[in-house]
Design a protein that fits this description.
Elements: E1 4-15, E2 18-29, E3 33-37, H1 44-51, E4 59-64, E5 67-68, H2 73-77, E6 80-83, H3 95-105, H4 111-121, H5 137-148, E7 155-159, H6 167-182, E8 186-191, H7 194-200, E9 203-208, E10 211-216, H8 218-222, H9 239-252
Parallel strand pairs: 3-8, 3-9, 6-7, 7-8
Antiparallel strand pairs: 1-2, 1-4, 4-5, 9-10
Helix pairs in contact: 3-4, 5-6
C-alpha cells in the first residue's frame, strides 16, 4: 500500500460494559475521499472522535500524517480539521466574521485575506456580510466546511455533514466536497446516506458490530454481491443493495 496519511490498527473502545469498537483497521491514502458507512450506533462517530483526538482509545494505534494520536495529539491537531454533525457556526456573526475568528484562533497570517478567499471559493461572497443565522441550510454547511479549511489542514473529518439538509442543500454540499477532493485534500466522511458515499467516495468501508466487515472501491464491493440476474437489462447492484446484503449476512452468522 502506497502513500498512507491515516493508518488505524486494531482500534478498540468500550463505554462501561458496551464494546463499541472491536479492532478496527483502516488505511487511507493521501488525497482520497474515504467513506465510513454504518447504521446508527455502529461506532462511526466514535472512530472520528478518536482520530480527531477528542476521545482516547482503549487499545490500538492511530497514525495521522506521521503523528501518533495517543502520544502526539497537539501535532495531530495541527494537520486535521473536523466538521461535526451540527454546524459550529456562530449565527450572530456574519460569514466573514466567523472565518476571521477561526483564522485568528489558528494564528493564520492575514485572517481577512484568508476569509475573503474562502468566501469566494465556497460561493458565499455575496452573503459575506450577512449574519450566518440568515443563511439557508446548505449555505450554513458550506460556511462550516469553509471554516474547517482555515490553515490548510491535510485531513478533514466530515461526520455526517449533510444530516438534516434537504436534497437540494445536500447536493450543494456534495459539490463542495468534490471540489475539496479535486484539490488534493484527504477527506474521511461518515454518512448514513448511501448515495452520498456512492457519489463522492474513492473507497468505502462498512463498520458493523464494531468491526470493518467490508472495505474497497464501489466496484470491488459490487463483486461481494451474488451475480446479477439477466432479464431484459442487466441490473447492477446499488451501494444500498451491497450494504444491506453484507450487514444482513453478518447478522445471520
Amino acid at each position: 500500500m502506497s502513500d498512507a496519511i491515516i493508518t488505524v490498527s486494531k482500534l478498540q473502545k468500550s463505554f462501561k460494559e458496551t464494546k463499541v469498537l472491536s479492532g478496527v483497521d483502516l488505511h487511507i491514502e493521501r488525497g482520497q475521499v474515504f467513506a465510513l458507512l454504518g447504521t446508527n450506533g455502529a461506532g462511526k462517530t466514535t472512530v472520528i472522535k478518536i482520530l480527531s483526538t477528542l476521545l482516547k482509545q482503549d487499545a490500538g494505534t492511530v497514525i495521522i500524517d506521521g503523528y501518533n494520536v495517543a502520544t502526539q495529539p497537539d501535532k495531530v491537531r495541527s494537520v486535521i480539521s473536523l466538521t461535526g454533525q451540527f454546524a459550529a457556526v456562530d449565527e450572530i456573526l456574519t460569514g466573514r466574521e466567523n472565518l476571521v475568528l477561526v483564522a485568528r484562533l489558528r494564528e493564520v497570517s492575514d485572517p481577512a485575506t484568508v476569509a475573503d478567499e474562502l468566501l469566494r471559493q465556497f460561493g458565499l461572497g455575496e452573503a459575506a456580510d450577512r449574519r450566518a443565522g440568515t443563511y439557508s441550510g446548505g449555505m450554513m454547511r458550506r460556511l462550516d466546511i469553509a471554516m474547517s479549511l482555515v490553515g490548510n489542514p491535510a485531513v478533514i473529518f466530515l461526520d455526517e455533514p449533510t444530516t438534516g439538509l434537504d436534497p437540494e442543500a445536500r447536493k450543494e454540499v456534495w459539490k463542495t466536497i468534490s471540489a475539496l477532493a479535486s484539490s488534493g485534500t484527504t477527506i474521511l466522511l461518515t454518512t448514513q446516506y448511501l448515495e452520498e458515499a456512492e457519489q463522492l467516495a474513492d473507497r468505502i468501508a462498512i463498520l458493523h458490530n464494531g468491526k470493518i466487515i467490508a472495505n474497497g472501491t464501489l466496484d470491488e464491493l459490487k463483486k461481494l454481491m451474488p451475480p446479477v440476474k439477466k432479464e431484459y437489462v442487466e441490473k447492477q447492484p446499488s451501494l444500498e443493495d451491497i450494504f444491506f446484503a453484507i450487514t444482513s449476512k453478518k447478522r445471520l452468522k
